[in-house]
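Structure ticket #2291
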Amino acid sequence: MQPDQTGKSGGGAGGWMAAVRQGFDIVAGRNGPREGSPWTGVGAVVQRELNDNLTSVRMRLLQALVFVTGLAAAYSAIGAIKDAIGEDPFVFLKIFTVSRDTLPSFLSFLSFLIPIVAIALGFDAINGEFNRRTMSRILAQPIYRDALLVGKFLAGLATLAVFLVALWLFMMGLGLLLIGLPPGFEEILRGMLFLVAAIAYGGVWLAIAMLFSIYFRSTATSALAGLSLWLLFAVFWPMVAPWLAGIVAPADPFDLSSQIAQVNTREGIARLSPNTLFAEAAAALLSPELRSTSFVDNIMLRRTPGALIGAPLPLSQSLLLIWPQLTGLLAGLIVLFTLAYVAFQRQEVRA
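Resolution: structure written out below.
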């Protein structure tokens, strides 16, 4: 049954968009022609889902949790960096990275909590409609599955973006109030790029949650699968990566090159985790003095004669440093959403 293929819209997608849509149709197992634009109804879906996300009690509780933890981390960091005012040209960025006593930094809190918020937004995006028996009624309207899935994803990403922008402005305002100095232009640019990286990081976890929401009909199972994967990458992956590296590239204790190869292999395996990619990208953006994300390169730089250890890098050089990490996050988002798209198109919908 394909009740979602009856909608018509003036002016179909042309050129490369038509070719892309045809390729998706072939992968999804639809060989027949479709009429109208697949994006008809995206705006309505985004508006409905965005309203539900922003007004739900679940999201308000998560937002309150993140804001409280962010306030505590920022207040603690500001107390620790007041002595560096006038000495560090990027003192404002220290709000995000400095930790004090037993309280982690704001960046650590954010990398820990963004996946939870994203999973909460997407774990019941599709199977929730099946369980409420509203999926067939939605697709009976002049709307394609493409528009439904894209609209839900864009609404979740927009909700996450609104949440992170509000939190970023809150942190900047709190720093301005407590430090007493405005941020520099480059600090603002670095903070905005960090915000973009955080949204991409959240988008990866949102795509994972929606993928599980399509594969599992039970919302509890999809939520548990998303949280289990997050726990694997957040807690166990730093322990799994060295073990796998020891198997793939065993090191000879008397051979320096084999030891370096094992370290590089361990870092490559660790970067399969979106948490690692986001942590490295955020560290380079918020700590301009960081000259490499590689452990071996940092060791070699300290032993290089004439190296300016601790001197800040220009923003362009920091971007070149983390370009692979940002590309990896965006590629992961696209691949995961494509898998969710294909799985949803192949799913049977019954009234």
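Closing remark: The first helix runs from residue 16 to 27.
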